[in-house]
Write a structure and sequence with these properties.
It is built from 1 helix and no strands. It has 141 residues and is an all-alpha fold.
Length: 141
Amino acid sequence: MINLDITFVIQLVNFLVLMLLLNQFLYKPVRKVLAQRTAEISGAKEKSAAVDAEVQEKMAEYEARLRAIRSSAADERGALKKEAVAQETAILEKAKDEATEKVSAIKARVAKEAEDARQLLKDSAQTLSAEICEKVLGRSL
């Protein structure tokens, strides 16, 4: 059986002192470090969630701005394309008008030169025919 003598009391006091010392120097610092670590982890998780939410928000803003810029660029590209087509049409029309004018001027010049050549040939033909007649007849007309 168990004898309850002074050694039991000494062992009980020794156990209680050991528990107080271990609690003071081991368990409390370990619990404090664990509590700090838990608090840091919770803070880091909250900060990570906040940063993730901020990144998602910034990405949404970026994508919205990118869509707006692409839409604006497409509109501007369409406007520039229409303007280019209009300028092309104007340039082609101007070139066509200039070509028509040049062709008309060339035709008029050719017609004038042809008429001058006909007149010259007519005059030359009359002179030549008079000379031929004089030579054939042997007398002047």
